[in-house]
Design a protein that fits this description.
Length: 290
Amino acid sequence: MEKLKDTSLYRPIHIKNDIFREYGIDVPYHQAWLEKDVAYKSLHDNFAKYLRGKCSQATKDTLLQLLSQASYALGVVDFEKVMREICELNVQAEIWARESNPNYWSNTFFEGERYGEMYSNAAELFNAWILEARHLPILAMMDRIRIQIMELSYKRRNKCVDWETRLCQKIDAYVKNLMDSSRDIHVNCSNGVVFEVVSRPSYVVNLHEVVHKIGGNVEEYCSMYFITECYSNCYKETIHTISDVDKSDKSVDDIEIKPPTTKKKLDRPKKKRIPSQQALEGEKNDIYML
């Protein structure tokens, strides 16, 4: 537990190596991974002890679930969203969670590697998408995959033609939702240019720098990959068919496939054994008889 607090990159393989170095015990990797889960569970147990007597059992269970969501949140936005939900249920619980230093127990603030594991989900997803084409011959399979990709590109390219917003529909709706949800946030003016956004945590915004940098357009905050034009450009290219210029003119029936050239394997070398004394005497007797 102390090692987990000292470094946020304390991975199961490090637990395994430290136990072997300090105690001489070689534990399996899955057991080391379990120990890390136990360390995380102790944080939840401490939180449960703190909530004892401060709220009902139903509220306590909800707060524990929210703390688990905050532990595995991947971004600051998701983390702050969960913390606001905790604050709505119990302000003291939200203060306890922030004072317990989320840098040690939340994935949002972990630096460096986040998982330490490698997955092939993207490859498996694509493999399932081309399920019908996998069993075809190589050239037919490649052409079938090309047709699938072109059909997908055609549908998505036509889909964004009717979009009138500068951002993609989902991102545009998400930005509008954020703007609507922020209307009840209190803002304190400092000197006409600098404002304090009262929230948890609070933010200081300099409108002069913001307007000078982005021109007052909220859409400029978004990544260029969320723009409708960029989305359309991703699917405007054409995937051409496989060229058959260098393909042989011979028919498949005329092609003679010969077996591969193989070398005859050498026999097992004969063993040179030292003859026994009786064998030598027997050979001498045979010579004398001749």
